[in-house]
Amino acid sequence: MQTTLTTRKTTTEKRVALATVIGTTIEWYDFFIYASAAALIFKTLFFAPAGNTLGTLLVFATVGVSFLFRPLGAFLAGHFGDKIGRRAVLVTTLICMGISTAFIGILPTYDQIGIAAPIILLLLRIVQGLSAGGEWGGAVLMAVEHAPQNQRGRFGAFPQIGVPLGLLLASGMLALMSGVIAPGDAFLEWGWRIPFLFSIVLLFVGHWIRRSVEESPVFEEIKERKSSSKTPVKDLFKNHTLLVIVAALVFAGNSAIGYMTTGGFIQNYTTAVDGTIHLPRTTILMSVALASTIWLIFTWASGCMSDKIGRRKTYILGWIIQLIGVLALFPLVNIATIWSVTLALCILSIGIGMTYGAQSAFYSEIFPASIRFSGVSIAYALGAIIGGAFSPLIATWLISQTHTTHSVSIYLTFMTLVGLFATLALRDRSGIPLGPDHEEEQKNKPFSWQK
């Protein structure tokens, strides 16, 4: 009997791990395919009348504006995730993301319908932002709350590696279309649409997998005890506002640097026709795909490492490596060879991965069970706004004002240090019980300065 229960539990854990990594890969493929396409072609297709510089700023603004709606998605997902369950929210966010992405694939351009084209594009991007805001919290809680106590970092890394996998898939699809299937003018005319329409296939796969996963055991226990919060978001900010802010700053330090590639800045900077660096579009996409693989490997490694040495120590090591990557980024990129750009992105991706893999477990262990979905989702969404939302836009503006990439390096260094100090402010709570029976213990002294 015991063997049967153990086998069933192991099977459930494997199914959850598979579902979270595939689900988040699909969600972030949808999210990143927009950012990559925006940097490469949307300026031409949707914002051409604005001119080159303003068009570039407007494109990156559409990338960033979706982040402003992530908190709303996080508020909604947190409320319903803490009240009706993690799984239902995950299925809903996946459907919304997939449909909005597919609609971008059939959207007429500015030349075809005028000003309506960028307006509709912006609205669809907002839907993507709402979906992304609700996706992450549910995925990580499904993974971490199903995990054995001593393997939360490893299980929590599964939804985390879905992010670089999504970028890898998005970059690979665009490279395939622009370099092989629809090179040259064909890519601008119709080839760019195929990766967006491909989202329909991914949507059906992801929906089927997520529907097959059992609800989080922590939420099932909360429901059985009828101990869920009636107003989880209100309770979160009433009792844990400072914790949300500090946790958000941890992710801000990672996302500001991560969105140099996932937000499209490096792709635009290294391929712009009127720029100082003009490398082939397909080649840069392949470099980003390789860097995504490095990001994935070190995300997984840091998640597993956090089970051995703790979340906080893993993060501190990650911030040091990320700082090295930030300082090396533009000196290497400005050499203006494909090898130097690829090396810069790979070094940067090591640090990004090391400050990302432990985040699922780290966040899950600092918020109490009754408001955990709201806490992790809202902290993540706010961190994305503070850090990643407008980092490509800020970087573009800094270069236009200072005419040097040194200003961008200073900005990225500052954000890395913000993440480091926010991490130092939080207590390592690796292995703390996650169930509703330990609510008071979970609330107790989350900050490192509290005795």
From TrEMBL:
Location(s) in or outside the cell: Cell membrane
Entry keywords, A to Z: Cell membrane, Membrane, Transmembrane, Transmembrane helix, Transport
InterPro entries: MFS (IPR011701), MFS_dom (IPR020846), MFS_trans_sf (IPR036259), Sugar_transporter_CS (IPR005829)
Transmembrane segments: 16-42, 54-76, 88-107, 165-184, 190-209, 242-262, 282-302, 314-332, 338-358, 378-400, 406-426
CDD domains xref list: MFS_ShiA_like
SUPFAM superfamilies, per database record: MFS general substrate transporter
Major place of residence: membrane
Keyword DNA-binding: no
Nucleotide-binding is among the record's keywords: no
Residues making up the signal peptide according to the UniProt record: none
One Pfam entry name: MFS_1
Entry membrane topology: Multi-pass membrane protein
Source domain of life: Bacteria
Domain Major facilitator superfamily (MFS) profile: start-end pairs: 16-431
Name of the protein described by the UniProt record: MFS family permease
Gene source species: Acinetobacter baylyi
